[in-house]
């Protein structure tokens, strides 16, 4: 009698799920990767799509194309509703179910508005290609509307752009918006000077990029100000609506508000019936399994993993390493070999702040300015996994660097493609 091949189900086609699938290419298992979208998104570059630096197809790749050579892997386009641990089934939104012997949950994170979900329509976050295209539409439309209005107060509001949250995403967005207005759009409008636009970066904490050493944070602060970004720290937002934001008693009129202030884990973690932290992340065992279920792994932004007394950051390298570890553990188990605890290898963190400027901490070495930007460029090109367009992205960045031009400045609406 033939032995049944173990079934591995992976939920989520982000970095954690995709690298887990790729690591199982030679394992004696059948893999099913489930995602509600048919494409993998290189999230670190979404801000470039949002600010017209890159097209959506430059940062996305069909999952089927990436995994097309893996004969043991199938891709299932579906929305996952919950997980039935007792029955070992993944329940889909359409009422169907997919059984598993091993499960890897890699559904990532979502925007978190600190109990103010009513702010979301006015301040979109940046987690998907759809989000990036919506932000790009709002930003470019604001300039177009400012060109035709004759009311100076309305024009001033349209030309005020606010980014809430000064982590890496917020800092990168603010820097890119400042360059877009002061360089790319210079001399293109007749009834206002695009360089007079205001870009504000709002942070509730005492400094921007607080996960970086204070000196690097200070360097980033100065660089963004040189680009023309106005930075407000120690300024928690107390209200957001269609006309602007409130900072306590202060009212700031602005038509374009972008959210980069908080994230929470995917809601799927709650269906696993185990302990969650305050952000909804699953409290996993040292080997990334769910307590009491050695066959279920949680990786990426959905996993609460502490090493050296600190929570691992929600960045792509961490998710990639977790995905690979989960795949290795499954392979070892299938082969009756002992598994290991997960150990994160910190290869550094970095954030870009505009043209030829960034900050980075790589294996304890602190970089800033052009050296950090070149390191950021190399690593981001390297991690465009399986993409046909590494050369395209490199060409677009080179052209943008030399000319300040941006080629993806089409205003698209929800029923249109990029």
Q: Separation of termini? A: 52 Å
Largest sheet descriptor: 6 strands, mixed
Runs with pLDDT <50, length 5+? none
* Broad structural category: alpha/beta
- Sheet-strand content, in percent, reads 25-35%
The CATH class label of one domain is Alpha Beta
The name CATH uses for the topology of one domain is FAD/NAD(P)-binding domain
Count of DSSP helices?
10
Oligomeric status of the shown chains? single chain
Q: Mind sketching the topology for me?
A:
Layout: E1 7-11, H1 15-23, E2 30-35, E3 39-41, H2 46-50, E4 60-62, H3 63-66, E5 73-77, E6 80-84, E7 89-92, E8 97-99, E9 102-105, E10 109-111, H4 129-148, H5 152-158, E11 160-164, H6 168-184, E12 198-202, H7 214-227, E13 229-232, E14 239-241, E15 244-247, E16 250-253, E17 256-259, E18 263-265, E19 282-283, E20 289-290, E21 293-298, E22 303-304, E23 306-307, E24 310-311, H8 316-334, E25 349-354, E26 357-362, E27 365-368, H9 369-382, H10 390-403
Parallel strand pairs: 1-2, 1-9, 2-5, 9-21, 11-12, 11-17, 12-13, 19-22
Antiparallel strand pairs: 3-4, 6-7, 7-8, 10-18, 14-15, 15-16, 20-21, 23-24, 25-26, 26-27
Task: Describe the model.
It is a single chain. By secondary structure, the chain is α/β, with parallel strands linked by helices. Among the domains are: 7-36 and 78-111 and 263-334, FAD/NAD(P)-binding domain (3-Layer(bba) Sandwich), CATH 3.50.50; 117-261, FAD/NAD(P)-binding domain. The chain is built from ten helices and 27 strands. Strands 5-2-1-9-21-20 form a six-stranded mixed sheet, covered by helices on one side. Strands 13-12-11-17 form a four-stranded parallel sheet. A three-stranded antiparallel sheet has the order 6-7-8, with no helix packed on it. Helix 1 runs parallel beside helix 8 (316-334) and helix 4 (129-148) packs antiparallel against helix 5. It is elongated.
């Amino acid at each position: 009698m033939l032995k049944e091949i173990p079934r591995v189900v992976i939920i989520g086609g982000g970095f954690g799920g995709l690298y887990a699938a790729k690591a199982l290419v030679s394992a004696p298992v059948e893999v099913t990767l489930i995602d509600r979208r048919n494409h993998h998104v290189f999230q670190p570059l979404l801000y470039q799509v949002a600010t017209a630096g890159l097209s959506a197809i430059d940062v996305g790749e069909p999952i089927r194309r990436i995994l097309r050579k893996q004969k043991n892997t199938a891709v299932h386009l579906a929305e996952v509703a919950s997980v039935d641990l007792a029955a070992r089934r993944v329940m889909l939104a359409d009422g169907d179910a997919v059984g598993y012997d091993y499960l890897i949950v890699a559904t990532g994170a979502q925007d978190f508005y600190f109990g103010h979900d009513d702010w979301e329509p006015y301040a979109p976050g940046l987690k998907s290609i759809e989000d990036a295209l919506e932000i790009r539409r709002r930003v470019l439309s604001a300039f177009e509307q400012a060109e035709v209005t004759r009311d100076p107060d309305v024009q001033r509001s349209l030309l005020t752009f606010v980014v809430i949250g000064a982590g890496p995403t917020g800092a990168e967005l603010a820097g890119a918006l400042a360059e877009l207005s002061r360089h790319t759009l210079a001399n293109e409008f007749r009834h206002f000077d695009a360089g007079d636009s205001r870009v504000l970066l709002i942070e509730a904490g005492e400094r921007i990029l607080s996960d970086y050493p204070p000196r690097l944070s200070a360097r980033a602060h100065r660089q963004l100000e040189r680009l023309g970004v106005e930075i407000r720290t120690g300024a928690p937002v107390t209200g957001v609506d269609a006309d602007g934001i409130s900072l306590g008693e202060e009212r700031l009129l602005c038509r374009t508000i972008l959210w980069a202030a908080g994230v929470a884990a995917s809601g799927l973690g709650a269906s696993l019936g185990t302990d969650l932290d305050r952000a909804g992340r699953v409290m996993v065992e040292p080997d990334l399994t769910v307590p009491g279920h050695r066959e279920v792994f949680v990786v990426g932004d959905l996993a609460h993993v502490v090493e050296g007394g600190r929570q691992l950051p929600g960045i792509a390298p961490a998710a990639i390493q977790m995905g690979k570890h989960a795949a290795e553990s499954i392979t070892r188990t299938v082969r009756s070999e002992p598994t290991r605890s997960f150990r994160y290898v910190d290869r550094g963190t970095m954030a870009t702040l505009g043209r030829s400027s960034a900050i980075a901490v790589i294996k304890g070495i602190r970089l800033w300015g052009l050296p950090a930007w070149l390191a950021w460029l190399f690593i981001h090109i390297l991690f465009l996994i399986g993409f046909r367009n590494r050369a395209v992205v490199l060409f677009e960045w080179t052209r943008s660097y030399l000319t300040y031009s941006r080629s993806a400045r089409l205003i698209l609406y929800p029923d249109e493609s990029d």
